[in-house]
Specification:
Elements: H1 10-22, E1 24-26, E2 35-40, E3 44-51, E4 54-58, E5 68-76, E6 82-84, E7 86-88, E8 92-96, E9 104-114, H2 119-129, E10 147-148
Amino acid sequence: MFMPHPNLSEELNSNIVESEIEGGVFINDLPPSTVLEIQTMHHCYTAVFLGGSQALISGHPEFCPRPVPVAIAGSTWGGSVLKMRFVGRGMHLEFHHPEYSTPIITSCIQEIRDCPHLVDAGAELARQQSGISRPAVGSAGIDAGITSY
């Protein structure tokens, strides 16, 4: 049972409870080569998880029309609070793209689907991309602004 944290606002405690009700997945719990389809209000992303916070993501016509190695930071409620390494319905996915100095934040996540029929393709894609250096989740871009799509 969730116990509200006394140092957090009522709104933030409420958001935490809501994220548990809406559902989502902690990416640390996913085995490598897991493929998720993440439907947001504006785009449908495909993410092949490589382990830890690393993934290959595609689905945005400008930022990732083809699979790009990224570091998934987690999900936000549209503000500055991040639920680390979590992909949650009703939240916004935040990831670090190697070609942008600020994090990419998606529109609100509508649905998250496991795609077991794509696991073999995801594993092959992960093998092909294994030579590419992957960005680390860090503080880069926190003060520089955020790109939101």
